[in-house]
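During the no-cost extension, the postdoctoral fellow (Dr. R.K.) reprocessed legacy sequence entries with the updated structure-token encoder. One reprocessed record is reproduced below for audit purposes.
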Amino acid sequence: MPSIIFSPMPSDLASAYRAGAPDAYGLAPEHRHSPGGYQCRHCLGPIVEGAPYLTLAYRPFPALQPYAETGPIFIHAEECSGYAHGDALPPMLDSPDYIVRGYGHDDRIVYGTGAVTSTDNIITRAQELLERSEIAYVHVRSARNNCFQCRIDRAPAEATSAGQ
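Re-encoded structure tokens follow.
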């Protein structure tokens, strides 16, 4: 099975949103304080109660097209490090299950790949999907609301679970 790597929102994009860049809908990110329980799509960790965070519309695809899903996400309002723990399951994935779905090299859903997957089976499911040449990457999405959580890619040969 291929080695995988969990990929967060790109750091340059997170920094741009923190600086006030418009989101996928052309709006400024909303500034709020966390009630607790929200997860950052950049560090892939929790946003603790009382911490400032941003809510924004995110489209984790390079261009508009019919399959380019856009939805709400949260990120820390203050700088945080992008997730860099290789194939280790991110701490934000603490629900019982998620949708795990493959996307092709054209950034479209590969039909038949999406499945509600128990959290403890995400790594195995992603590895199985990434064995298929037509799948370029995998998304982990909320099983309840379809919100983007993170991306899973094939790991470069030198990547390890200790980081890249």
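The longest helix spans residues 122-130. The longest strand covers residues 52-58. The remaining legacy entries will be reprocessed before the final report is submitted.
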